[in-house]
Amino acid sequence: MPRTASMLFASVVCLAVAMIFVVVGRGNTRDDSRSRRVGADQRDGADQIASNAPTAVAAEASADQNTAANTAANTGGSRHPIIIRKPTGPPRIELAGMDPQGRTGSVACSTCHAVRKPNSENVSAATLDEFHQGMTFNHGKIACYACHNPDDADTLRLADGQSIAYENVMTLCSQCHSKQAESFAHGAHGGMNGHWDLTRGPQMKNNCIDCHDPHSPTYPRMVVGFKPKDRFNAPLSHHHDHQGAESHDDH
Amino acid sequence: MTTTENARKPSLPIVENFTRRAAVKGGFATLGAAAFVAAVSPLRQAAEDKSAAEFMQQHYTELSPQQKADVIARLEAEAKENYGADVTIADDRPIPGTKFVYAINLSVCNGNGKCVEACHKENNHDRDTNQSYIRVLEMPKGTMDMEKGNTTYTGAVPQDDKFYLPVQCQQCDEPPCVDVCPVKATWKEEDGIVVVDYNWCIGCRYCEAACPYHARRFNWKKPEVPADEVNPDQSYLSNRIRPVGVVEKCTYCLHRTRRGKLPACLEACPTGARVFGNILDKDSNIRWILENKRVYILKEELGTKPAFFYYFD
């Protein structure tokens, strides 16, 4: 019995000594990190009163610095561009047939349209007697030659009669869709990639016709693919607890 | 004579029986000891899972640059050991003069869920549960009440009588999740992002309960990510693979945004509904939207002051 007691006593003493060592060790590291910790605490405090005036003022001050830096970057020319994707050029028509060597080819719009008389009254594919017949057209009540150039099939035409290249199709769209064009200019319409901070890298933006088929511009429906499996995703019929009294009637 | 007779008097053999009291004591002592062993047995497991360095690690804000470097080296080695992936864990700090803000165009969002998938991949979420920081709610038109939404919709979107409301961490200026943390493992940084030190989190899940937007997630088990799918571009406070038993949340992809890039969910959005930027920059897209569009915030009445806006064309 005394043997057990003395072993117990010895272990208690060992534990106490170990605790003292740990406390002393931590105390030392704490002294080392004292100044750093004070800094961190101050920052913490500032975070917690984030909505209060002093921080807001500080934030505004730093914002001023930031915009100053931006303008400096502007003048310095180190600001990266916003790159808007452009169509590669006028569309080419793939030929259905093959030549004796088995090659296919593509031709420009003007290959046919240069020798055909434009019908400026045509408004849909249904009234065409040859070519383009399968095309869906659902873009208001406008006619083909509202956008396409009857005098030069490889270009488009603005409302004022000015010819414009396919690459600059956004100018054409913006004539009617000025709201969208304005939103686009401010990043509120159309997707983007790359950098939000143009001082660090460029930004790439979509073109109107990347997302909208110009002949049927309604954004197409999509099918949902990816679904997380979590407890909030259980089907609605499974949780009756917050649906009110009527859902309990069937129990 | 009589004494010797007494001594030699035959008697029953005496067995040193415990008294009843001692037996009961002994029984309870055994029970107690067993209960104690059972209670501390997870600690033995923990000792196997956890290195001494990890156990002794300080809070993120108290780490010296040297300690931080050591911790990050250890985490990179652990990622190699546990997931077979060569990852780089950076320590991205806020850019001075930035306050990140997000906006979503609800007129355009069609609920296709590409953002959910992009978040899943970018942030090294568990492949088994398809976890993601974003939930898209299919909402009946005419209400902004999140409880009326449904996240389990499938098939073709958008439905004509519905609109779609993507919900993720709103990076509140008055974050209830930060207030309730008993160990200060989560806090709000200078650029407005609410972060978690996954190595300091004790997994009590108070923050998950406190968040009115259901934005926090708990790691119920060790995340499974195949080596070739691990995103090696990581940050300590962001998308490094989280340990089991801790809470995690959207960080506006701070491993991207603090390097000037756009968040992964924004880049993945095929409809262009998402806008991200620095609200302190007067010329930013986000400022134009706040000044020119019809802007809503979710659960405004709670006073959480979200840094996340919803707008309509």
TrEMBL record, chain A:
SUPFAM superfamilies: Multiheme cytochromes (SSF48695). Residues 29-90, 230-251 are annotated as: Disordered. It comes from the Bacteria. Residues 29-46, 242-251 have a biased composition (Basic and acidic residues). Gene3D superfamilies: Flavocytochrome C3, Chain A. InterPro entries: Multihaem_cyt_sf (IPR036280). Residues 66-75 have a biased composition (Low complexity). This is Doubled CXXCH motif. It comes from Stieleria varia.
TrEMBL record, chain B:
Signal peptide: none annotated. Gene3D superfamilies: 3.30.70.20. This is Tetrathionate reductase subunit B. InterPro entries: 4Fe4S_Fe-S-bd (IPR017896), 4Fe4S_Fe_S_CS (IPR017900), ET_IronSulfur_Cluster-Binding (IPR050954), TAT_signal (IPR006311). Coiled coil: none annotated. One of its GO terms (molecular function) is 4 iron, 4 sulfur cluster binding. Keywords: 4Fe-4S, Iron, Iron-sulfur, Metal-binding. Residues 192-221 form the 4Fe-4S ferredoxin-type domain. The gene is ttrB_1. It comes from Stieleria varia.
